[in-house]
Write a structure and sequence with these properties.
- Pfam families: TIM.
- It is found in: Cytoplasm.
- Involved in the gluconeogenesis. Catalyzes stereospecifically the conversion of dihydroxyacetone phosphate (DHAP) to D-glyceraldehyde-3-phosphate (G3P).
- This protein has 227 residues and is α/β, with parallel strands linked by helices.
- It has a single domain, classed as Alpha-Beta Barrel (TIM Barrel), CATH 3.20.20.
- It has 10 helices and 8 strands.
- The chain has helices at residues 17-34, 47-53, 77-83, 99-111, 126-131, 151-154, 156-165, 183-191, 201-204, 209-225, and strands spanning 5-9, 37-42, 58-60, 87-90, 115-120, 136-139, 173-177, 196-199.
- It has an 8-stranded parallel beta barrel with strand order 1-2-3-4-5-6-7-8, surrounded by 7 helices.
- The two termini are 25 Å apart.
Length: 227
C-alpha cells in the first residue's frame, strides 16, 4: 500500500459491472493525473473484471476465515487473490467477523503478499488492531458513516488520538473514514496525521464519482506539497 491513499468502498451502490468499470476507469484517470494512490473495494463478483482493466489496487470488501474445502458461499483470501485483488477490507461495521478470525485472516493475507485494511469503530480499538499486524487500520465511527458529517471535523480527537494509538506498531498505517465528503474534510484529516481517508456514499451516490475523488486527491496532493 502506498500512502497517502484514498480508499473508495463501492459497497452495493452499483450492481452493474459495466457501470462500475466506467467509474473505476474514471477514478484511475484522476489517480494518474494527480499522482495520488486510490484503492477500490468492490463486490467480489466485480474483482476480476475491474482488476483486469484498471491498474488501481482492487480490494475485496470482505473475506472469510474458512479453509479451502466444504464451505458453501465463503470468500477466502486465496479466491480473491486468484481473481486479481491486492487486498481486502476486514471487519467493516456492516460485515463484522470474530477477533480470532481477524488475526487468522491477516496472517493468511500476509503470507499471500496481500494488503489487509482492518476496520474498527472507535479509537480505543486502534492500538489492539494495530498489534494484529494489518497493513492499515481504518477507524470509522458508525454514527457518522454516510452522514455527510466528517469525523475529521466533527470528532477530530478521534483522528488525532488514533494517530497516536496506531504507533504501537510502526509498520501499520492509519486511515480515517465516516462522513468524509469534501476537500476540507480530507485536508483536516491529513493535518491531524492520517495516512489516508476512506469513503463510500459521498463518492458512489454522486452524479460524478470521479469528481468527488478528484477533490479528495487534490487535498492529499496539496497537503503533501504544503511547506
Amino acid at each position: 500500500m502506498r500512502t497517502p491513499i484514498v480508499i473508495v468502498n463501492f459497497k452495493l451502490y452499483e450492481i452493474s459491472i459495466a457501470r462500475a468499470l466506467d467509474i473505476s476507469k474514471s477514478i484511475e484517470q484522476v489517480s494518474r493525473k494527480l499522482g495520488v494512490e486510490v484503492a477500490l473495494a468492490v463486490p467480489a463478483t466485480m474483482i476480476r473484471e475491474i482488476s483486469s482493466n484498471v491498474s488501481l489496487p482492487i480490494y475485496a470488501q470482505h473475506v472469510d476465515d474458512d479453509q479451502l474445502g466444504a464451505h458453501t458461499g465463503s470468500i477466502t483470501p486465496e479466491l480473491i487473490k486468484e481473481a486479481g485483488a491486492r487486498g481486502t477490507l476486514l471487519n467493516h461495521s456492516e460485515r463484522r467477523i470474530r477477533l480470532d478470525q481477524v488475526a487468522n485472516v491477516i496472517e493468511r493475507l500476509s503470507s499471500l503478499g496481500m494488503d489487509s485494511v482492518l476496520c474498527v469503530d472507535r479509537r480505543e480499538l486502534v492500538a489492539p488492531a494495530a498489534l494484529m499486524g494489518p497493513t492499515a487500520v481504518l477507524v470509522e465511527p458508525p454514527e457518522l458513516i454516510g452522514s455527510g458529517r466528517s469525523v475529521s471535523k466533527v470528532r477530530p480527537e478521534i483522528v488525532s488520538e488514533s494517530v497516536k494509538a496506531v504507533k504501537v506498531n510502526q509498520s501499520v498505517r492509519l486511515i480515517v473514514g465516516a462522513g468524509i465528503s469534501t476537500y476540507e474534510d480530507v485536508i483536516k484529516a491529513m493535518e491531524l496525521g492520517a495516512d489516508g481517508v476512506g469513503a463510500a456514499s459521498a463518492v458512489m451516490k454522486s452524479n460524478s464519482p470521479a469528481s468527488v475523488v478528484e477533490e479528495f486527491a487534490k487535498a492529499i496532493r496539496d497537503r503533501r506539497l504544503a511547506p
